[in-house]
Amino acid sequence: MNPQISNAPEARRVAVAIVGGGQAGLSMSWHLKQAGIEHVVFERDRCFSEWRKARWDSFCLVTPNWQCRLPGHPYAGPDPRGFMLREEIVEYLDAYVARFNPPLLEGVEVTQLQRGADGRFLLSTSAGAWIADQVVLANGVYQKPVIPREAERLPPDILQLHSSSYRNPQSLPPGAALVVGSGQSGCQIAEDIHLAGRQAHLCVGRAPRSPRVYRGREVTDWLTESGYYDIPYENHPQKATVREKTNHYLTGRDGGREIDLRQRALEGMRLHGSFRGVAAGQLHFAPDLRQNLDEADRSYNNIRTLVDQYIAQAGIDAPQEPAYQPPWEPTEEITTLDYAAAGITSIVWAIGFTPDYGWVDLPVFNGRGHPVQRRGITQVPGAYFLGLSWQNTWGSGRLADVGKDAEYLLGSIRRLAGMPVAAAA
Length: 425
What we know:
alpha/beta; FAD/NAD(P)-binding domain; 2 domains; seven-stranded mixed sheet; five-stranded parallel sheet; globular
């Protein structure tokens, strides 16, 4: 039953409520402030808390600094083609807040969101009730770290932590470390441990990889110039399934480079197939290491092909490069490993996060609990999502283009409020 929120005189009122004080929520705030629309941003921690607390010490961007282009705050530092370190990213973000002074309420958690019979929204928060005409859910998708139940089968003397809690190799106990998951975080953490001279094991899943520089230029330059990054997911060859894909792995470390797990294997990193479980002192892996490495290389080569096609179509004179030749192949598929004999004393679970929308009492989710939206607009008038992966394009949810998605939602917000709307972007 919808609450009669008009009979809640103790609640404060606002035109638009934004839940989440990260890059998405504050991009939305910037546009609303420019439009003169009253709003408030709720952040249960400190703004940009994920950047501050959930990144390891050597973390840096995997995309060039010039792609940091929050609305009204493009990167203006001395190294547009570099890759900012964690502390530099936080400085860039803090400068954004200082630049436009958003109506931000830090340390205020939204514990329930409902829609009243009159169509407005009631937000129960740790600092009292609020009523909003419209609401933007911008609290992100990296909310609940995933650690499998199989972790309970490991002995207590093995340190276990999620990738969001990993800081550096020195914080791990002496011995070998196993990283489970080969997405961006897993590969970079495994490299971090390996480059520190420690024995690193990595469970390789189906994450794709990307070239860094190809035919004389950064691949991000080629993909930007060709318009690939502007392709809406509806027009993408993989359609909506692209939203389910893991990010390609590469790194901004050492000035930016590729991550080739085959090369790391030659250097002594131990690669295994997908993690399958724990039993009787043994770690169990699927016999899919060769398949997963081949699939990652296929993605790598597909990106090269996209660049080749663009160069040919545009008539660009660019140097040729030889085809990629795998420097290492697994000679056998090891499906079990005695973790004590292997000297494994720590495990980093880098298998992602699940969203947490348990506080949202609105019919805006599918049977899997995922948002149902088109470019952030839901079937509930006045309720929006922002900052989702591939909400519209590759740059959605990223520092690159989350501002474009916020600008698009501004049009709907203005329309519902009966305000003039500029031409659609």
